[in-house]
Amino acid sequence: MPPSDDRVERARPSVRSALEEGWHTLTAHVWTLIVAVLIYVAVESLSNVFSVPPGPGGPQQVVSVISPLGSILVTGPLVVGLAYLSLRAVRGFEPELDDLLAGFRRYVAAAGGMLLYGLAVTVGLVLFVVPGLVAMVRLSFTPYIIVDRELDPLDALRASWAATGGYAWSLFGLLMVSLLILVGGLILLIVGAIPAIAWIATSWAAYYERATRTAGETAPGDADPVVT
Question: Which of 74, 170, 82, 154 is nearest to 117 (CA)?
Fold first, then answer.
């Protein structure tokens, strides 16, 4: 007997359900997630420290353009690793700090996918704000798909675009709430930003998980994401 429309509607992801499931996941694995985010923030901060500021011209100008791309080659796989850790936690597995390295185990896909994601969002924001926001929302499943379906960078971006088609406004709402959570964390003497980022990470993983289940791409109690 097929599920009723009411049951299907309840199974659909929403901002509220993602935040609730994300919070539940965070509280269940708080210390692992906090330490994982601390590591991520530390690496991200170091990559920014070593980036080269724009110069008046010559070699420094060239390096200042290249250095952010080089940074993505390190932080991109780490973003994928944090997505993997969060997705495992949402699915009921015990997350481990070693999960942060998942992106490096699929380095080409992770670095390439996040580089293309960053370029798409940046170009969209430079040309006009709206295309950048659309890219940010529609391609937001990319890091999860890279570790969950073993797709190459372009296919992962295409799959994210297809999977988010019916959820664009809802995901935009989650993006806005995520920004508010992050700002709230920063207001709390900066320290609050760490649990805020952890909550945001688990909430997006929860949204992805529910969206793909609704689409029939995963099943309740689905196995571990593919990267091991």
Answer: 154
Sequence letter at residue 184? G
Give residue 70's domain range: 11-214
Residue 5 lies in a domain: no
Q: Which of 114, 34, 133 is nearest to 71 (CA)?
A: 114
Q: How confident is residue 49, by pLDDT bands cut at 50, 70 and 90?
A: low
The answer as to whether 33 is a domain residue is yes
If one counts the domains in the chain, the total is 1
- Indicate the burial class of 212 (C-beta count within 10 angstroms; 0-12, 13-18, 19 or more): buried
Whole-model pTM: value is 0.84
Instruction: Give the Cα separation of 131 and 188 in Å (integer).
Output: 32
Residue 160 has pLDDT above 80, yes or no: yes
